[in-house]
C-alpha cells in the first residue's frame, strides 16, 4: 500500500487520480488532499477516501472546511503552510497536480523531502527546472512524469542510457484551432478555445493547447526531465492523439507509446510505477482508427511554440518570464479581456524586455514570477482603458 498525497485534488488530474485510487483501494492510502477554494469538492473527496488531512489554499475558507469535515476524523489546514504540510508529511508518493506556478512551492517541498513525485504541474518544472532536478538528485527524490508525452517517453526509455538516445519527439494534437486561419483566430472565444477535440482538461491547459504554448512548456519540461538540449527535442502534430510521443535511438530504432487519449493511463503508470495497475480507459482499436496522421507544426500561426523554444535556448530567467506572462495572458483571455492572438504577443513582449538574471534559488523564481505578472497585468490594464 502506498501512502499518497494529492495536491490539486479537485482539478482534472486530481479527479482522475482519485478515480483510479478509489478503484484500487488496496493499493493506496490517501493521506492528504488539497484544493484552491472548492470546499465542497475537497470535503467530499476527503470523506470518500478517508483522507487524514485536507488543505484549502484559500485561508478564508478554512472555517467552511472545518464545518464540512466535522466528525470525519480528517484534520484540516490552510494556506501555503498547509500545502507544504500535505506535500511533506507521511506521504511516500505525491501527485503534484496544482495548475501553474502556484504549485511550485509545495512541489519543491515534496522533492526536498525526498518523496516520489508524480509530476503533472509542468509549470513548476518550467520555472524551476534546474533547481528542481538538482534538488531531486540531492534529496534522492524520484520525479515521475504524468504529462502524457513525457510519460510516454519515460516508458519508451525504460532506463536506456541517455547517450543511446538520438532525439525525442513530442506529439501535439494541434488543439481546436489546428486548421483555423490567423485571421479567424482574432475572434475565437474562450468557449471555443477550451473545447479541446481530444482531451478534457482544466481551462488553463486547454487554452495552452489551443495556442500550442502547452507544447512549448512541454519542450522545456522534457529538457529538464530527460536532460536533452533543445535541438534533440522535436515536435510533431498528430491530431488523433494516439501516439503519445516517440524516442529515436542512435541506431535508428524509434519507440513510441500508444493508447487512447485518457489521462488515467499515464496517471496510473506514475501511481503504480514500477508496477502497473488496471484502468477503465478505452482499449485502443487501431483497425477502427485506421489511420494516424503527422505533420510539422506551423510556427507562423502558433508563435507561442517558437517563443517557448527561444526561451528554452536563452535559458536563465527566460522560461520563468515566458510562463508568468502566459499565465496572466491566459487568465485575461478566459475573462474576455484580451483577444486570443494577444496571448502570444504579450508573452513575446515580456521576453523582449527581459534583462533579469537566472534564478539561483526558489525565492528568485518567485520574485521574477511576481514581477512579470505585475508588468503584464499592468500592460493589459492600460490596453483595456
Ligand atoms: P485544473 O484547473 O483542472 O485543476 C487545478 C487544481 O489546482 C485544482 O485542484 C485547484 O483547486 C488547484 N489550484 C489552482 N490554483 C491553486 C492555487 N493558487 N493554490 C493551490 N491550489 C490551486 O487543472 P488540471 O487540468 O488538472 O491541470 C493540473 C496540472 O496538470 C497543470 O499544470 C497542467 O498543465 C497539468 N496537466 C494536466 C493535464 C490534463 O489532462 N488536465 C494533462 C497534462 C498535464
Ligand atoms: Mg501533455
Automatic annotation (TrEMBL):
Keywords: Isoprene biosynthesis, Magnesium, Manganese, Metal-binding, NADP, Oxidoreductase. Its EC number is 1.1.1.267. GO terms for molecular function: 1-deoxy-D-xylulose-5-phosphate reductoisomerase activity. Residues 258-373 form the DXP reductoisomerase C-terminal domain. Pathway: Isoprenoid biosynthesis; isopentenyl diphosphate biosynthesis via DXP pathway; isopentenyl diphosphate from 1-deoxy-D-xylulose 5-phosphate: step 1/6. Gene3D superfamilies: 1.10.1740.10, NAD(P)-binding Rossmann-like Domain (3.40.50.720). 1-deoxy-D-xylulose 5-phosphate binds at residues 122, 148-149, 173, 196, 209, 214-215, 218. NADPH binds at residues 10-13, 36, 38, 121, 123, 202. Pfam families: DXP_redisom_C, DXP_reductoisom, DXPR_C. Mn(2+) binds at residues 147, 149, 218. Residues 143-226 form the 1-deoxy-D-xylulose 5-phosphate reductoisomerase C-terminal domain. Its cofactor is Mg(2+); Mn(2+). It comes from the Bacteria. It catalyses: 2-C-methyl-D-erythritol 4-phosphate + NADP(+) = 1-deoxy-D-xylulose 5-phosphate + NADPH + H(+). Residues 4-129 form the 1-deoxy-D-xylulose 5-phosphate reductoisomerase N-terminal domain. Belongs to the DXR family. Catalyzes the NADPH-dependent rearrangement and reduction of 1-deoxy-D-xylulose-5-phosphate (DXP) to 2-C-methyl-D-erythritol 4-phosphate (MEP). This is 1-deoxy-D-xylulose 5-phosphate reductoisomerase.
Amino acid at each position: 500500500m502506498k501512502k499518497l498525497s494529492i495536491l490539486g485534488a479537485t482539478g482534472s488530474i486530481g479527479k482522475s487520480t482519485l478515480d483510479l485510487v478509489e478503484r484500487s483501494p488496496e493499493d493506496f492510502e490517501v493521506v492528504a488532499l488539497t484544493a484552491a477554494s472548492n470546499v465542497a469538492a475537497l470535503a467530499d473527496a476527503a470523506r470518500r477516501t478517508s483522507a487524514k488531512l485536507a488543505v484549502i489554499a484559500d485561508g478564508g475558507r478554512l472555517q467552511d472546511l472545518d464545518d464540512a469535515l466535522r466528525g470525519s476524523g480528517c484534520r484540516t489546514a490552510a494556506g501555503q503552510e498547509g500545502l507544504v504540510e500535505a506535500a511533506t508529511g507521511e506521504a511516500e508518493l505525491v501527485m503534484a497536480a496544482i495548475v501553474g506556478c502556484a504549485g511550485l512551492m509545495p512541489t519543491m517541498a515534496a522533492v526536498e523531502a525526498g518523496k516520489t513525485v508524480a509530476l503533472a504541474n509542468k509549470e513548476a518544472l518550467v520555472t524551476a527546472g534546474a533547481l528542481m532536478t538538482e534538488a531531486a538528485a540531492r534529496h534522492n527524490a524520484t520525479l515521475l512524469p504524468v504529462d502524457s508525452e513525457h510519460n510516454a517517453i519515460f516508458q519508451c526509455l525504460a532506463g536506456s542510457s541517455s547517450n543511446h538516445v538520438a532525439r525525442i519527439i513530442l506529439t501535439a494534437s494541434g488543439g481546436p484551432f489546428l486548421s483555423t486561419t490567423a485571421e479567424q483566430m482574432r475572434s475565437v472565444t474562450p468557449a471555443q478555445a477550451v473545447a479541446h477535440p481530444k482531451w478534457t482538461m482544466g481551462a488553463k491547459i486547454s487554452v495552452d493547447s489551443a495556442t500550442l504554448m502547452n507544447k512549448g512548456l512541454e519542450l522545456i519540461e522534457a529538457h529538464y526531465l530527460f536532460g536533452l538540449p533543445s535541438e534533440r527535442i522535436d515536435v510533431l502534430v498528430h491530431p488523433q492523439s494516439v501516439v503519445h510521443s516517440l524516442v529515436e535511438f542512435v541506431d535508428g530504432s524509434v519507440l513510441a507509446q500508444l493508447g487512447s487519449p485518457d489521462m488515467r493511463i499515464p496517471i496510473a503508470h506514475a501511481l503504480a510505477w514500477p508496477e502497473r495497475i488496471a484502468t477503465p480507459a478505452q482499449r485502443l482499436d487501431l483497425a477502427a482508427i485506421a489511420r494516424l496522421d503527422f505533420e510539422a507544426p506551423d510556427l507562423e500561426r502558433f508563435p507561442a511554440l517558437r517563443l517557448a523554444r527561444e526561451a528554452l535556448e536563452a535559458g536563465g530567467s527566460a522560461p520563468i518570464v515566458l510562463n508568468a506572462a502566459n499565465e496572466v495572458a491566459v487568465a485575461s483571455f478566459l475573462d474576455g479581456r484580451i483577444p486570443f492572438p494577444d496571448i502570444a504577443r504579450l508573452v513575446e513582449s515580456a521576453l523582449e524586455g527581459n534583462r533579469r538574471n537566472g534564478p539561483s534559488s526558489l525565492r528568485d523564481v518567485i520574485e521574477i514570477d511576481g514581477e512579470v505578472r505585475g508588468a503584464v497585468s499592468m500592460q493589459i490594464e492600460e490596453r483595456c482603458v
